[in-house]
Design a protein that fits this description.
By secondary structure, the chain is of the alpha+beta class. 20% of the residues lie in helices and 45% in strands. The chain contains 3 helices and 10 strands, in the order αβββββαββββαβ. The protein has helices spanning 2-18, 86-93, 162-171; strands spanning 27-31, 36-40, 45-50, 56-65, 70-79, 105-116, 123-133, 139-147, 150-158, 173-174. It has a 7-stranded antiparallel beta sheet with strand order 3-4-5-9-8-7-6, sandwiched between helices. It has a 3-stranded antiparallel beta sheet with strand order 1-2-10.
């Protein structure tokens, strides 16, 4: 599983260094409130919702329809009144990793991990999963990051351009 992640990282680097595609981080958002940044391929649509505690939940989304295939890049962020429990939040994210296989979803990688803050080096609990729709070949990446009271949830779908989705997921970073 980790080999797939390494291969996707190398592929993304080769594509971006080789100039084979347009730069995929043309629009970087920085949220000091939610303490993260992400590099989007286009200007994201921003929307606001309310989480289950009545607090704001922000969503940044880029969707691209290429006719015969589609891709999306999304980050949502929200905070809660009490500190988030990594065991509760992240264990439930991976509670049934095999359930998707019955619906044509193959889990390529699924793991709890740590994300290091760019400025301070502080490590935060995180969860990463990549899946593949066996019918369409679409690869979907998903990353949850817990930052005390806040939850950053990022995802990307790549039907044909796994490199762009991989670059986007790598760009989702914690600031401090």
């Amino acid at each position: 599983m980790k080999i797939l992640a390494i291969l996707l990282t190398v592929l993304a680097a080769i594509i971006s260094i080789g100039g084979l595609v347009e730069p995929e981080h043309r629009f970087r958002i920085v949220s000091k409130y939610y303490n993260f940044s992400a590099g989007f391929p286009d200007v994201p649509t921003v929307s606001t919702d309310i989480n289950d505690e009545g607090l704001n939940k922000h969503l940044w989304t880029v969707k691209r329809n290429h006719g015969t295939w589609a891709e999306y890049f999304v980050v949502s962020a929200t905070c809660y009144k009490e500190a988030l429990d990594p065991t509760k939040e992240l264990d439930s994210a991976d509670s049934q990793p095999g359930a998707g296989s019955q619906n044509g979803i193959e889990v390529l990688q699924s793991e709890r991990t740590q994300v290091r803050a760019l400025e301070t080096g502080r490590e935060l609990p995180a969860f990463f999963r990549s899946t593949k729709d066996t019918a369409t070949g679409s690869v979907i990446f998903h990353k949850l990051i817990l930052d005390r009271y806040c939850l950053i949830d990022a995802g990307a779908r790549a039907d044909k351009n796994v490199g762009a989705a991989s670059l986007f997921m790598q760009s989702v970073s914690i600031l401090k």
